[in-house]
Design goal:
Helix content is 43%, strand content 23%. By secondary structure, it is α/β, with parallel strands linked by helices. The strands form four sheets. Strands 4-3-2-5-10-17-16 form a seven-stranded mixed sheet, sandwiched between helices. Strands 1, 6, 7, 8 and 9 form a five-stranded antiparallel sheet that branches. α5 (54-66) crosses α13 and α10 (202-214) runs parallel beside α12 (268-277). The chain binds S-adenosylmethionine.
């Protein structure tokens, strides 16, 4: 992958960061998601909420249940990864014989879902789903993996940060910003101080537009880490791009193209603007508040009760099991971790 990137940059010129990210993650031969095994899960490279406890899927299922756009609407999960969330929410569709789609860019993951979910149709993109149908769409930690450009504000306007070559090393370089990047930054960030670096999430915007264009009535639950434009400007600079491999962060994405996950904080201001432009209302809340609203309060109370009961009867093993379950439930709403994720609900 490294050599291929270097050759491509030497012949085609510096590569905007979104093009680099696209290749690192989804290149058919060597992309992190496209070529590798299923990445999420305790044995994979990162653990997501549905991998921690079934309760995450239970709560998302409660939301789905409350927000069906119509009877027989399709259930669509975008980027199911290992399929753990879909497994928790698919049963009512299978029982009713209603359509389910797993939309997954990764060929490795698609092959896996075809075996695992015989009642679902597994496709590579929403364009492969019949147009005009009503759908309830869920996506957990997917938007952050959609390729984003990097832009830096200078006195004269925006420049892009791209990947170039120096000797036989991949290095960061500045290039003139493409018109689409300038428009996105002006629209989503407006005026920012000179020296501010941001990600321009054109792929996320394109995907949101396609959703509203493609389907009939949609309900949508998008969960990811991110923040508003104001929050991201405060947060960013060094941490604008993150990597994950084997549960560790920090692997250098310039040194290890294709070997590591590359993610960016999702700009919820950009997403909310597009939802509003489609004439729909959205609710923005933290994962903490979302899960408590959709059933986690009761699950934590039940588990705590069982833990206390086991303790009072001297059933040590059961007590430990319930304690471990309770800690998993609490991890989902930890304000310093998963609980701070953003949930965008189109209801
Ligand atoms: C971080 S993983 C999350 C997996 C799973 N949702 C979970 O919570 O464990 C992101 C997944 O989204 C997929 N993906 C990224 N962009 C996509 C897109 N536009 N359409 C469908 N899948 C996508 C990737 O291939 C990858 O499997």
């Amino acid at each position: 992958m490294r050599e291929r990137l270097i050759r491509r940059i030497e012949t085609g010129g510096s590569m905007p960061f979104d093009v680099y990210m696209e290749m690192c993650l989804y290149d058919a031969e060597d992309g992190f998601f496209a070529a590798g095994p299923v990445r999420s899960g305790k044995k994979g490279d990162f653990v997501t909420s549905p991998e921690i406890t079934w309760a995450f899927g239970y709560c998302v299922g409660e939301w789905v249940d409350d927000n069906l756009p119509s009877a027989h609407a399709a259930l669509i999960e975008i980027g199911p990864g290992s399929g753990t969330l879909l497994r928790e929410i698919i049963a009512p569709w299978t029982d009713a014989g209603d359509p389910v789609y797993a939309v997954e860019r990764s060929a490795a993951s698609r092959a896996f879902h075809e075996q695992r979910f015989p009642t679902a149709t597994v496709v590579a993109a929403i364009d492969d789903i019949p147009r005009g149908i009503d759908a309830v769409i869920v996506a957990n930690e997917v938007l952050d993996n959609m390729p984003a450009a990097l832009a830096c504000r200078i006195e004269a306007g925006w420049v892009e940060i791209a990947v170039g070559v120096e000797g036989d090393e991949l290095v960061l370089v500045e290039i003139p910003a493409r018109p689409g990047v300038i428009e996105w930054c002006d629209n989503v960030f407006g005026e920012v101080p000179s020296g501010t670096t941001v990600s321009a999430q054109l792929a996320v915007s394109g995907w949101i537009r396609r959703v509203f264009d493609h389907f009939g009535t949609v309900a949508m639950c998008l969960i990811d880490y991110g923040g508003t434009s104001e929050e991201l400007i405060e947060r960013h600079a060094s941490s604008i791009v993150r990597t994950y491999r084997r549960h560790q962060d920090g692997l250098d994405w310039l040194q290890h193209p294709g070997d590591t996950d590359i993610t960016v904080d999702v700009n919820v201001t950009g997403v909310l603007k597009l939802i509003a432009r489609a004439g729909r209302n959205a609710r923005l809340l933290s994962q903490h508040d979302f899960l408590l609203e959709y059933g986690l309060v009761e699950l934590i109370a039940d588990t705590t009760h069982q833990e206390q009961h086991s303790a009072s009867t001297g059933a040590i093993m059961a007590q430990l099991e319930h304690r471990s379950e309770r800690l998993d439930l609490e991890a989902l709403i930890d304000p310093a971790g998963l609980g701070a994720f953003q949930v965008i609900l189109v209801e």
